[in-house]
Structure formats: structure tokens, C-alpha cells
Amino acid sequence: MSAPRIVVFGGGGFLGSRLVTALADLGYRVIVPTRRRDHVRHLLVLPSIEVLETPDLDDAQLERLLEGAIAVYFLVGILHERRPGDSERVHVTLLGRVLAAARRAQVGRLLHVSALRADAEGPSEYLRSKAQGEALVRGSGLAWTIFQPSVMFGPGDRFLGLFAKLLKWTLVVPLAAAETRFQPIYVADVATCLARALHDGRTLGQTYPLCGPKIYSLREIVRYVAELSGGRRWIIGLGASLGAIQAAIFELLPGSLLTRDNLRSMQRDNVCECAFPAVFAVEPASLESIAPTYLGPGAVTDPYFATREKRLR
Ligand SMILES: NC(=O)c1ccc[n+]([C@@H]2O[C@H](COP(=O)([O-])OP(=O)(O)OC[C@H]3O[C@@H](n4cnc5c(N)ncnc54)[C@H](OP(=O)(O)O)[C@@H]3O)[C@@H](O)[C@H]2O)c1
User: Fold this and answer.
1) Does the model's pTM come out above 0.85?
2) Does ligand 1 come within 6 angstroms of the Cβ of 10?
3) Using CA atoms, how far apart are residues 95 and 89, in angstroms rounded to an integer?
């Protein structure tokens, strides 16, 4: 008998790569649709993961892809728009098409990754479009679970990792939204929750904010990354207008550092108001227990995730 199939949209990404390996370890056959095979080179060596290069699936092809799958995970997301309207196209339109195809293909389970503080009235396009996506999931008629992670860290992240790169070049760090508070969560803990929810009936129809054990201001996080990278930096918090100018300039530079929409998201603290959901039996790892393993002086490069990192540069 062949292994049950699970389709993971966004399975080649930062979170998706951890999830698909976890699902493959549990014995599932995992299908990862991707716009470009090259984006998921790091998954090609794994025998129970099947990569499908499918840049433009029409609705009938989507339905065929989902036929016979026991579950669909939707992890596709973008933090930076290349063209106006990208957030809505990805977080709402594409998700809506996947939900409709999953219904037609009678997929038994839908697990969706949104974002902490997704809000239809939120300050940014990112948070508003994520909320619209959540509303579609809740109204889909499928057996759904929604996850709302705070910012995720781990080898290959574009949060601490970006600051670490930036700090190599500067002693003075002008920082927008320096006092905004975050509660970062380890990416592998989120992947564990996603995998454990699959067959746990208690998670049906539930929305789970996921945060790490400790709250930090952005200033504290950047100071910590500087310490790990071997030096002190002078961090200057920018007010709203200077922050907006910085974001507008960074938006034009390569490297996806910061956009005006990101800054608007950071008008609100990115922290959980409740304890970590006990249903997953996960004790979330602290930043201090993980970050030194990939940012500190003795950092070890994981060759598997290093391949993924390379293609992101
Ligand atoms: N990273 C965080 O700190 C964080 C925090 C909160 C919530 N989230 C959410 O968690 C999910 C996973 O995040 P992540 O950091 O793992 O993201 P990621 O590494 O950027 O991966 C996202 C995936 O989405 C796919 N994708 C991107 N744009 C697309 C498009 N226009 N059409 C189709 N597919 C597209 C990519 O697949 P291909 O390139 O293979 O096609 C990629 O593998 C996202 O929904 C994100 O919004 C992330």
C-alpha cells in the first residue's frame, strides 16, 4: 500500500522545509508544488518528497493535484510585495483557489499558516490580507486549523540573519520601530505544531497564536545579534517620520530589509496574549538556546539549509 499523500504549498520555504521533512519522517508522501524547481533544490535529495514545478496551475490542474491527498498545508506567504496587490494575490486569491480545489477534491484536512495579529482593520496590507485569508479558511467548509506564528527564528531565517549581515557593515544602527515588542518563536517548534495538528481532532476549527517564551523590543533583539556577532553597536531609534524615510529607501535596495508595509505592521506589538497552546505538547525553545548555534562565533552551518539559503541570496 502506498503512503498517504499530503500536499504542502510553500513546502520549500523556511518553515515549509522543516515541515515537509517532519512529515516525510512520519511516513507520508509529501508533494511540494513550486514555481521553480531550483527554489527547492535542497529537497530534491529526499526520497519521500516529490517536487512538482507548477508555475501556473489552472483550477482543474489544482484539483487534480489535490485528488487523493489526505491533507493540504498552505504556507505560501510574502512579506514584501514586488508589485502592488501581490499580498492579496497570494494570501487571498491563490489561497481561495486552493480551498475551492480542496473542496472539489474532497480533501479531509486543511492546515493554514497565517500570521500573528492578522487583522482585517490592521495597519498593513500584509496583516489585512492575512486576515482576509483566514476568513476564507473559516468559511471554507473544510476541516481547518489556522496557525498564527510570531516572527520565526532558526538557521536560514531572514530576521536575525538579516540583522547579522547588516551589522557586519556598520557600527551605528539607525533602527525604525526600535521599541516595538516581539516574541520570536523557533521555526522547528512551529513545524512540530503543524505536524502534530494533522490528526488531532482537538485542533479542528481552532486558531493558534504561536509565540516563543520571551518578549523583546526590536532594539534588544538587534543588540543581542550584535553581541553574538562579536561586537557592540550603537543603536539609534528612529521616530515615525525618519523610520518611514528609511523604509522607503530600503524598499528600493536589494536584500528585502524593510518596506513601508513592514513598518506599518510594526506599529503594533507582535506578541501573544495567551500561553503556548498545551495541545501540541511543545516547550518552545528560547532565542538564547538556538541563535548562538547559527549566529555565534562557533556557528555550525547545516549543509541542508545552507543550500536553501544560497538560492535566497
Ligand atoms: N518567517 C516568519 O517569521 C513568519 C512569521 C509569521 C508568519 N509567517 C508566515 O508563515 C508562512 C511561511 O513563512 P516562511 O518564512 O517559511 O516563508 P518563505 O520561506 O518565504 O516561503 C514561502 C513560500 O511561498 C511560496 N511563494 C512565495 N510567493 C509565491 C507566489 N507569488 N506564488 C506562489 N508561491 C509563492 C514560495 O514557494 P516557491 O518559491 O517554491 O514557489 C516559498 O516556498 C508564510 O505564510 C508567512 O507569511 C512567517
Assistant:
1) yes
2) yes
3) 8
